[in-house]
């Protein structure tokens, strides 16, 4: 079990300024994968930060597994929820990649042997084990993002929040990391919230929340989103290639199943 509920949440960074989030309510079910999309400045990152208690709402409540997120519960919540930001620079604390991934585990008092196992496994998962003794600051943007992901995966969170966390990876790197997330969702029942502009990523979500000016403008499935050209145009989104292809074939009289039914097959095609 690892679900998230926002109940009538309103938030602003400064008094006397307009609300950044205005009476937002939604639930992300356990083991669900939800993509948050919307224009820059619509409030997506603010939602992610509220979920992990980095910010506190002025009105409304946020619950993780039914437990309210507030100053008293924050450490408990952070052992269950892993957040990876777009800019990994802000997240580095160790002098080597290994120490950096170790940091979160030391805070949780994970025994030494278990710690070594988790660090090596998570570095392996993101393809960075060979870099364990390197200085994080010397790595490329994409490699830094991989390390930031490894640090969060090592903690084995039940909920993974990704705020454009693969934006510096090349398409192949992004796809292999996304595949890892899908595997974790399947095998470890992880709940998954992703802030993204990437419609290939949206395609794999169970549900899409479109955020517009601090409100939920749409709550739909990826398929419903891809059928609404006006929404795609409004939010500057491109239909994923595979969806475009099957639509085109359909117009030519060749009917394929909904590509959403073939996620496993698509995974294989992409690797
Ligand atoms: P998104 O992730 O959708 O781009 P954000 O949640 O980052 O949107 O920002 C929502 C609004 O809050 C924007 O108007 C932004 O300028 C403002 N904002 C974000 N962070 C801060 C901050 N630390 N202080 C003041 N205003 C902020």
TrEMBL record:
It is found in: Cell membrane. The keyword DNA-binding does not apply. GO terms for cellular component: ATP-binding cassette (ABC) transporter complex. InterPro entries: AAA+_ATPase, ABC_transporter-like_ATP-bd, ABC_transporter-like_CS, ABC_transpr_CbiO/EcfA_su, ECF_ABC_transporter_ATP-bd, EcfA_1, P-loop_NTPase. The lineage of its organism: Bacteria, Bacillati, Bacillota, Bacilli, Bacillales. The keyword Metal-binding does not apply. It is a peripheral membrane protein. GO terms for molecular function: ATP binding; ATP hydrolysis activity; ATPase-coupled transmembrane transporter activity; cobalt ion transmembrane transporter activity. Keywords: ATP-binding, Cell membrane, Membrane, Nucleotide-binding, Translocase, Transport. This is Cobalt/nickel ABC transporter ATP-binding protein. SUPFAM superfamilies: P-loop containing nucleoside triphosphate hydrolases. Belongs to the ABC transporter superfamily. Residues 4-238 form the ABC transporter domain. Pfam families: ABC_tran. SMART domains: AAA. Its main location: membrane.
């Amino acid at each position: 079990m690892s679900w998230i509920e926002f109940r009538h949440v309103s938030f602003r960074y400064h008094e006397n300024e307009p609300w950044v989030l205005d009476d937002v309510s939604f639930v992300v079910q356990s083991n669900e994968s939800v993509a948050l999309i919307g224009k820059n400045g619509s409030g997506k990152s603010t939602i992610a930060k509220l979920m992990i208690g980095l910010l506190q709402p002025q009105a409304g409540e946020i619950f993780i597994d039914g437990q309210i997120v507030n100053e008293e519960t924050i450490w408990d919540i952070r052992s269950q929820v892993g957040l990876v930001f777009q800019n990994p620079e802000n997240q580095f604390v160790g002098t080597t990649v290994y120490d950096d991934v170790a940091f979160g585990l030391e805070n949780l008092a994970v025994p030494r042997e278990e710690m070594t196992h988790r660090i090596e496994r998570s570095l392996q998962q993101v393809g960075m084990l060979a870099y364990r003794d390197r200085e994080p600051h010397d790595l490329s943007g994409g490699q830094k993002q991989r390390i930031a992901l490894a640090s969060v995966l090592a903690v084995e969170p039940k909920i993974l929040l990704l705020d454009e966390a693969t934006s510096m990876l090349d398409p192949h790197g992004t796809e292999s990391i996304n595949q890892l997330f899908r595997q974790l969702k399947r095998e470890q029942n992880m709940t998954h919230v992703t802030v993204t502009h990437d419609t290939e990523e949206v395609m794999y979500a169970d549900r899409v929340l479109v955020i517009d000016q601090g409100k939920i403008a749409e709550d739909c499935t990826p398929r419903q989103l891809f059928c609404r050209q006006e929404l795609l145009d409004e939010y500057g989104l491109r239909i994923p290639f595979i969806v475009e292809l099957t639509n085109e074939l359909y117009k030519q009289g060749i009917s394929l199943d909904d590509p959403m039914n073939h996620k496993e097959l698509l995974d294989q095609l992409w690797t």
